[in-house]
Design a protein that fits this description.
Length: 135
């Protein structure tokens, strides 16, 4: 994932839209077969896209959850590190934020970074009315 921060975020949005289209198509196909399976939420889809972006730099990474989570249980210094990585992702580039997180060699912190980044990107797209909040 190369380019400016804005270009990378736009690429994430495009990947998100593609993933949603794939999921909707799969749901239609399953519906035709009579199988009922819940569709992932918009947030879960964003989480999967971010997981894929992180896996480009940290192949062994697997998100612990795709649901909305908070990391209030983390110590303040860990929360500060994670917020710093999120800030790098938004101001420099997504790839730079991920690489900085990778350098920590702490998969638990990378997982918390995944969660924070997912939440921030999802919220940004909601505020820009690029995705709808489905309740």
């Amino acid at each position: 994932m190369e380019g400016t921060s804005a270009e990378q975020l736009q690429q994430v949005e495009q990947e998100y839209q593609q993933k949603r289209a794939e999921i909707e198509q799969q749901m239609k196909e399953r519906g035709e077969l009579g199988a009922e399976a819940p569709s992932p939420t918009e947030h879960e889809t964003m989480s999967q896209v971010i997981e894929g972006a992180i896996q480009q730099h940290v192949p062994e990474f697997k998100a612990s959850s795709h649901t909305t989570t908070t990391d209030d249980s983390l110590p303040p210094d860990a929360q500060e590190k994670i917020q710093g990585w999120v800030n790098i992702a938004f101001t420099k580039s997504l790839a730079e934020g991920i690489k900085t997180a990778k350098d920590s060699n702490d998969i638990a912190l990378i997982d918390a970074f995944h969660s924070a980044l997912t939440g921030n990107l999802y919220q940004m797209l909601v505020e820009q009315k690029r995705v709808e909040v489905v309740k």
